[in-house]
Structures are given as C-alpha cells and as structure tokens.
Amino acid sequence: xxxxxxxxxxxxxxxxxxxxxxxxxxxxxxxxxxxxxxxxxxxxxxxxxxxxxxxxxxxxxxxxxxxxxxxxxxxxxxxxxxxxxxxxxxxxxxxxxxxxxxxxxxxxxxxxxxxxxxxxxxxxxxxxxxxxxxxxxxxxxxxxxxxxxxxxxxxxxxxxxxxxxxxxxxxxxxxxxxxxxxxxxxxxxxxxxxxxxxxxxxxxxxxxxxxxxxxxxxxxxxxxxxxxxxxxxxxxxxxxxxxxxxxxxxxxxxxxxxxxxxxxxxxxxxxxxxxxxxxxxxxxxxxxxxxxxxxxxxxxxxxxxxxxxxxxxxxxxxxxxxxxxxxxxxxxxxxxxxxxxxxxxxxxxxxxxxxxxxxxxxxxxxxxxxxxxxxxxxxxxxxxxxxxxxxxxxxxxxxxxxxxxxxxxxxxxxxxxxxxxxxxxxxxxxxxxxxxxxxxxxxxxx
Length: 446
Ligand code: GLY
Ligand code: MN
Ligand code: MN
Description:
By secondary structure, the protein is an alpha+beta fold. 37% of the residues lie in helices and 18% in strands.
C-alpha cells in the first residue's frame, strides 16, 4: 500500500474529528511483550495505528490535530540508535519516518511527555480509546493533569473524550482496493496451505505435522505470521471449537478439521476445511458434510448488498436444523418441526457458534454489527455493503450422548470461507481451497 492511502485515511479521520468540533486524536501502537528473560513475543503492531500509518515499529504514537483550518498529523517514534540497530535491526528514526510515511511532523518517542501537554492544551475534544491500554491511560492522565495545572494561564484541557476507535471502525469495515488485494493474497496462500495439509495427511501422522505443513506454506509464500493459532483437530478433537493442542495421532477413519489462515502484510485470512484422514469420506461423514456444505451455500446466497448481517446465519441454521432432524440427530418427537427446533434453540446441541464475523486487519475485525438506532426494542443488524469482508463458517459438532445416532458420534465438521461483498453479490476470496467431497477426495488422491 502506498503512503497516499494512509494519508487519505488520516485526512478522512481529521475531517470527522473536525465535524465533531475538532480536537486531538492520540493513537498508540502495541507494546512489545516480554516472553522471558531477554526474549520478546513476536511484535505485532496495533491494527488501528497501522491502518493510519503503515508503520510497523514498536514504541510509536500517532497524534492528529484538527483545529479548524489547521490539520496536522504527527508521528512519535524511536530515535535511530546504532547500537540497538546492530542487535535488533533497522529503525527509521523520526526524520526518515516522517518523510517515508508522509507525516507533517515527527518527534522522538522520548519527547511525548514534553509535547503532549502542549498539544492537548485548548483542544476541544480528546479522541482516544481509554481502557484498551491501562499503561498508556495512566500517562495520558498525567498529561491532562499537566494541562489543567496551566488553567491560570487560560489554557484548558479537553473536556470531552470521544472513542476514536468508533470512528475508525466505520472506516475499517469497508475495505479499499489495496486492502482487498492483500486479503486475496492472504486467502490464496492459506488455500494452498490447506491443500498441502490435505495432501500430507494420513493415518499415523500427528496433528502437529499438518500444522507444520501449514506454517511451511504460509512462510514459503511470504506471509509474516499465522493470523491466529492454527487448529488441527483429528477425530473427536474437532468437536472442541478452539482446540489448540495439535498433538494427537491421526487415526484411520478420522475426519480432520483444520481452521488456519495466514496474515499477509497485516491482513488476515481465516479458512476451515474438514477432510478424511484416509482420503475417502465414510457414508456417515458424507451425510453430515453435505448438510454443512448446503448450509454454507444458504448463507452464501445471502451474501450480497442489502441483505442484513444475520440473514446468512439464519439461513444456515435453518438448513442445519432441518439436516439434524432428517438424520435423527434431533428427535422430531422431542423438538418438533424445524421452526420449533429453531425457536427453542434445540439445534445448539450440535451448532453452538455464530456463522461468521468481519475479517480484515484482525481475524475478528473491527466494525459494528448493528445499526446505531433502535427500531422497537433493539438495534437491527446492519446491511451488507460492497467492500465488506465476512467469513461464513457453519458447522456440526456431535458429542456422544444418549439418543444421538452412534454412527455420527465424535464427528466435527466446519467449512469456512472468506467472502468479499461486491456490487452485484460476492466474491469468495478462498474459492481455490478444495471444498466439495469430490474436490477434496481428488486432491487427496494426488
Ligand atoms: N479461526 C477463528 C474463527 O474462525 O473465528
Ligand atoms: Mn472465522
Ligand atoms: Mn476460522
């Protein structure tokens, strides 16, 4: 992405700040986290900070000033430091960072305590997300106190705080062309990784061996990191929704559920496929797989501008619930017809999560799911628009229980794709990942 996009985003945010009376926005990046002595967890910048800058170093803060015709964007970042650069690598330093990332001004991060009380002085509003970073909140309180101490000089501190993330969420929920390009790349790499894992799977191998295949493909194709912890779940482990051990041996006759996606240039993908360890679905596995696949298609049919966010979930639940009744997972004599089983939420015994989420810089991305105004007692789910990206990920998870047909016990199936809403419908970003029974069996044969 070029710096013009980031500058345009900052200008857009500044215009919104001005429309609310002007003031100062303060957006810090994430902290480096110690893992143990002298070791850090891999650093990942804050997504809001990155969205406005493209800057990936730790210890940095964006300050935006909207003061009538005076609009400024300022970056605070680490100074150049030859010794640290020898140990840890390149740092831009304020001067080069200002130039490279198109800020109006830049300061060393150590100047924050001196500059912020000046910049906060007489700002009408403070645009900041308190509660997200307690350490930074404390520093901000100190700067605000320093401004208040100047009240005899006629300088006042902002009296209103507006959550800057609320403004940014609305921007982030609609992806621009350069973001879509990166998300397509992330999804394509992840699709190749899923295919590779399918081809390497066989009874006797371990879940972590398939995880290694995923990571190999992610990294081989230039992804910087997984977008979240990969789930590689064989057999009954597939019924654990956030399974993370990935250490069990794969058995003949198991289905393997893999939920894994890479991050590419900070953008996430999130794909789930479920396939047979030995390359052939059993009859019972086929029956449930086709139900989940049909439920995903029902949700996909709702993925177009104008339909409401939850329409896809409701459509998927209807197909899943009908399937549960047809297969005897749900007992008609106990739960009644499909409408009754939906109304009583009986389907939740086998499908207990939502059908998707926003996807973008974060795997569960920013953005409101509902409108801001209530109609009657509640806020309606918002309408989908071109440029939004969602996942669609229905599933069925069958834990052994009395009355549940034994042939389905311990089968867990989820199918998840990454869907861009377009002007005339949608584009499946993960379309190249084998999905039908025929596609999966064919890929695994090779
Ligand atoms: N992999 C996380 C999710 O599917 O939401
Ligand atoms: Mn997901
Ligand atoms: Mn997922």
